[in-house]
């Protein structure tokens, strides 16, 4: 097990190094910046409070800060949640502070009038100032989704004992391997724990107890992946697996899921081993997504994902390239 894992990690780590060569990179094996975990979490709280107050001066922005919301760039305070946020949940908050990358990931619930919206936030902090701020917003969630976003699952908040933490670089590799498992419909390419449970935009999509979308028991993370039920995803581009917190075992990753739908049906392996055809009569679209992944004992136990729709083959607002 360890030998196989080590081999995967060495291969995957080289890919993370290459992928992290741009601005905002993972800073592998670098020394932590001056803003520690508590400092980064405190800056998130100041940011969210300032946004709800519609007062950009209440957050520590650098003069040249870059900001996007759902891949659109505009001056902070002149649109998006900076104009229409009316409140923020105090109980549903997940922080992924990473002093080494000088970044922090966050997931929370923001109110805009009567609507509840899920926010994934990435901040880059240099010398105590926010130099980059990025919003992913899933707006107007339904009542069932909001009910699952009252408080985070305990595993997403739990601190790991020091002797159960793994190196930050290996955490990045394990989280990145999830994308390869999806594009190959092969759970062997990542490391799922038996109790793995995945949520997306507040809805439970794999693992856990209770019925799935078809009224049948939900498949676990391994069976869901191996069934080819996710094979409608054409590719996953612009992967940014840069932010990890060994203290909680959390990785915060951003990506762009492509859905071409050139083929209007996919073959899915049912629970009894038979293969059925599932029709996918949709127009092409992108799904920019954020995944927070809990890693313990070198395995993925929890995933909290969220995303929103964009036209097919859109930019993410940060890369000059589409792939």
Account of the 3D structure:
The protein is of the alpha+beta class and 323 residues long. The protein folds into two domains: 2-27 and 157-307, Nuclear Transport Factor 2, Chain: A (Roll), CATH 3.10.450; 37-147, Roll (Nuclear Transport Factor 2, Chain: A). The protein has seven helices and 14 strands. The chain has helices at residues 2-19, 37-53, 81-84, 143-147, 154-157, 168-184, 221-226, and strands spanning 61-69, 72-73, 87-98, 103-112, 115-126, 129-138, 192-200, 203-206, 235-245, 250-259, 265-269, 275-279, 285-296, 299-307. The strands form three sheets. It has a six-stranded mixed β-sheet, with helices on one face. Helix 1 (2-19) crosses helix 6 (168-184). The longest helix is centred in the first third of the chain and has 18 residues, at 2-19. The radius of gyration is 19 Å and the shape is globular.
Helix content: 10-25%
Radius of gyration: 19 Å
What is the number of beta strands? 14
Sequence of secondary-structure elements: HHEEHEEEEHHHEEHEEEEEE
The CATH top-level class label of the largest domain = Alpha Beta
Mean pLDDT over all positions: 92
Number of domains: 2
What distance separates the N and C termini? 33 Å
Largest sheet entry: 6 strands, mixed
CATH fold category name of the largest domain: Nuclear Transport Factor 2, Chain: A
Strand content: 35-45%
Helical stretch tally: 7
Secondary structural class = alpha+beta
Strand line-up in the sheet with most strands: 2-1-6-5-4-3
Catalogue the unreliable spans. Answer: none
**Per the principal axes of the C-alpha atoms, what is the gross shape?**
globular
Named CATH architecture of the largest domain: Roll
């Amino acid at each position: 097990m360890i030998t196989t894992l080590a081999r995967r990690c060495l291969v995957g780590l080289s890919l993370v190094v290459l992928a992290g060569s741009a601005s905002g990179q993972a800073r592998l094996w670098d020394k932590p910046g001056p803003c520690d975990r508590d400092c980064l979490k405190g800056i998130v709280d100041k940011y969210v409070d300032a946004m709800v107050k519609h007062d950009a001066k209440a957050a520590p922005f650098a003069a040249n800060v870059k900001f996007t919301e759902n891949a659109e760039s505009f001056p902070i305070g002149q649109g998006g949640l900076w104009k229409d946020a009316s409140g923020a949940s105090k109980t549903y908050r997940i922080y992924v502070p990473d002093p080494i990358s000088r970044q922090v990931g966050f997931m929370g619930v923001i109110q805009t009038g009567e609507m509840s919206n899920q926010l994934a936030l990435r901040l880059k902090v240099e010398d105590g100032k926010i130099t980059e701020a990025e919003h992913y917003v899933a707006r107007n969630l339904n009542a069932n989704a909001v009910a699952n976003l009252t408080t985070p699952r305990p595993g997403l908040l739990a601190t790991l004992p020091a002797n159960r933490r793994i190196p930050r670089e290996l955490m990045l590799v394990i989280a990145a391997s999830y994308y390869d498992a999806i594009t190959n419909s092969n759970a062997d390419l990542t490391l799922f724990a038996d109790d793995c449970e995945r949520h997306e935009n507040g809805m439970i999509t794999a693992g856990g107890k209770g019925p799935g979308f078809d009224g049948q028991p939900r498949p676990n993370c391994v069976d869901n992946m191996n069934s080819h039920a996710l094979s409608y995803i054409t590719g996953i581009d612009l992967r940014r697996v840069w932010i990890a917190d060994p203290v909680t075992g959390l990785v915060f990753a951003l990506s762009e899921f492509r859905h071409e739908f050139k083929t209007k049906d996919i073959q899915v392996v049912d629970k009894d081993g038979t293969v059925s055809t599932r029709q996918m009569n949709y127009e092409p679209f992108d799904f920019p997504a954020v995944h927070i992944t809990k890693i313990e004992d070198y395995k993925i136990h929890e995933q909290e994902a969220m995303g929103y729709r964009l036209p097919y083959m859109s930019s993410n607002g940060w890369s000059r390239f589409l792939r």
